[in-house]
Write the structure tokens for this entry.
Amino acid sequence: MSQQMTASASYPGWAAAATVRTSGHVNAPHVRLPALPSAVPWARRILQNKLLEWQLEGMSDPALLLVSELVTNAVQASASQAVRDGSSWPIIGLALHLTDTALVVEVWDTSHALPVLQEADPAEERGRGLMLVDFLADSWGYRAAGGGKVVWCTLSSPRAARLRQPH
């Protein structure tokens, strides 16, 4: 399937994208959310609706956990950046893509600080997010983008696996 999508040039995380042609991808629009804790349930709702639309409800549990962790990290990174800079409340971005083989979740934030996978202290309430992402996702990574960074992960699509099986 081929689809054309226009990305807003005002969206910092994907500012370089004017018109993107995709082949074999089904894309959701990039969503801007305030870097507030309420971004997490909104991102989960957006993903849940896309999974229903794509008939991939079976991916919900791991996919929702992954988006929760990535968005939580983006909110924390962007909020701390705003406090240091004294700037207005920042936004984060969420993009969802379905390729022939996987669901791709991308989350943009305003911080240049790179994500670091570390062993969590059992006494701490926080610090396990990237460990969960590393465990659940088929792959994950990050890249500099638009005055911040994008942290992404992939999760194999069961539909793609069915398509690859011999009939």
Remarks:
- The mean pLDDT is 78.
- The longest helix spans residues 60-85.
